[in-house]
Amino acid sequence: MKTSDRLRADLVAQGLLVTPGFIDLHAHLREPGFEDSETIATGARAALRGGFTTICAMPNTEPAIDTPGLVVEVLARGAAAGGARVLPIATITRGRRGIELADLVELSAAGAVAFSDDGSPVSDGNLFRHALEYARGRGLLVIEHPQDVALSGKGVMNEGVVSATLGLPGMPSAAEEIGVSRAILIAGELDARVHRALAWEQGLQGQELSAAPANATPYDSNTKMNPPLRRLHDVRALWIGLADGTVDAIATDHAPHASVRKDVEFDQAAFGISGLETALSLVLGGVNAGWCDLDIAIRALTDGPARVLGITPSPDDWIAIDVDEPWIVSADALTSLGKNTPLLGLELRGRVVQAVVGGEVRFEKERRGEAQAVR
Amino acid sequence: MTAVGIEGQNKLRWTRRHVLELNDWRREEIEAVLETTAAMVEILKRPIRKAPPLRGKTVILFFAESSTRTRVSFELAAKALSADVTNITASGSSVEKGETLYDTVRTLQALGGDIIVMRHASSGAPYFVAERIDAAVINAGDGWHAHPTQGLLDAYTLRGALGDLAGKRIVIVGDVLHSRVARSDINALAPLGATITLSGPPTLIPTAWRRGALPPCVTYEPDLDRALDSADAVIALRLQKERQEGGLLPSLREYSRVWGLTEKRVSLMRPNAPVMHPGPMNEGVEIDAVVAHGARSLVERQVTNGVAVRMALLYLLTGTPLEAA
Predict the structure, then answer these.
(1) Among B148, B103, B154, which residue's Cα sits nearest to residue B313?
(2) Which residues, other chains included, contact B225 with Cβ-Cβ below 8 Å and sequence gap of 6+?
(3) Which of A151, A265, A336, B112 could join B122 via S-S bond, C-beta 3.0 to 4.6 A?
(4) Span A3-364: which CATH code?
(5) Residue B203 contacts A where some CB pair is shorter than 8 Å
(6) Close Cβ partners of B24 (under 8 Å, ≥ 6 residues apart)
(7) pTM, full prediction
(8) pLDDT single digits (tens) B102-142
(9) Percent of chain B scored above 90 by pLDDT?
(10) CA of A34 to nearest chain B CA: how many angstroms apart?
(11) Predicted complex ipTM
(12) Is there a contact between B208 and A268 if contact means CB atoms under 8 Å apart?
């Protein structure tokens, strides 16, 4: 029996849930360019605390990750961080400008696991089609940000009764639905692989938000994200889709922002919320509510994203979770530099106790029981 | 937190610290402001238009979006109550030099005014300030969201013209989507028993409202003639000329033909039903000059009442008893 196997058996015996490490298809690590919001190192460490042993880093940095040299640099910084494995995603188009294709094959050879102009769609339908055709020929994965930007316009939240009351410009759901439909139609025509960058976390967060205090300010910029939080029945639809297998992967869209970009007027605030460290608790919340079986939810955090990426996860990447441990979301409790979450102040359940990457224990939480035993 | 007794029938304990919007106001609170406004109107009729309740208090007018009328109205109101008044405007301050609202709030906090009257282009900005400052905040208009003093002065003016508003039907016509006045009018008039008919181009009505998810006591009638038929009053909203460029309107000419207040149209209302407008008016676009300056027009009375309503709010927020002052 390997040391690692003994350790696992020991943790299981303590009543902990031991599972393969989670894989996040969609995280913004902000480096290079926005290191006040997050760095590759802080993001990779935050990921471990959230149970993610592998995270895919979105390329909408400054500069955008559109050359092989930048891909190699992200890989190197990820490896040096000693946190979760960091897999770079490169841009679909040069500079994310949506005008000409980036060197997809060379980027892939340098280590890019997928391609995305995330933050904006490839609005030119013809260029998007070419990107899929070109990627398909080499078995590359394209992750699209599905949005009709003319329709979403200057919107800052879901268009509906709340936006009407608050006097904020809304984004109609048709903006996303058209973006998704376009991707499905073009991909279907080509039999290409495209992954809809669905705002999963957002749906989950929305569920929690419905339980948020009623006296909270109506203009909390920590609820601002793109695509926006939609209605409660959209959230339910996501859970139903997860339970019945329509949705095969859960991603966080971890979007940390420094306070200078969030502590401003709502319409001026940056889009996005910090999500790596809250996703597990939110998923467990849905499981506890009976919306989805635990094993299906865990698969959507492990096998599901691995299949999307076409990778075989290392059996030596695993985590141990105390599914009942309560914790209060606070700026101090988050390892990520991004403290921007609408869940601040809420009590959630479920914490990662141990995270192992490549057989090496990279995160170990001080535990209640042990602390008492020492005394 | 201030709390004072109000003269009059409604012995209400005033507990609001800020005036940010009217969405959550109860009828008794609106009544309290209207009663206090009546007392202020009396002060403004005196030969010397000055009373001492705010002596020693500082009112800071922070206007991050240009405005002359509302700013002057607040300034006159504060001075009539003997407050010290100072101005921070966008053009004369560091707002234009890239200072963030957060910085401005810290500065305002350090300056130590008692009441901040603020106007801002971003909906919700007064919440941002109120959460971070000790002073009372009065919203003098934020984005498309709210303009509570306009809502209250419109309620006061309408009540002066129509008496009890219970069962009265008020038409609001124009660019409701982008209008903080429309939102605050609805929130001030509905609790007083009025019903509101919105009219205007479908592109300028919030989508959810157009599809039927309207606030209580509010309906939408795109045909202005039908909306005006036997109505008790109409409020025309200002049309920003850039709406045409945004693809929301074919032309100003078509707008004025279909949704402009003409003499013929206003005669569809009940006899002598009044016409109001928050100003400044685009005469010939949303309202014809003969209507704007005709016998039904209450536009100037709105301006006069605006000073009294703002005095009432300044007074209520500082909590000084009127008689003891």
Answers:
(1) B148
(2) B265, B268
(3) A265
(4) 3.20.20.140
(5) no
(6) none
(7) 0.91
(8) 999 999 999 899 999 999 999 999 999 999 999 999 999 99
(9) 84
(10) 19
(11) 0.91
(12) no
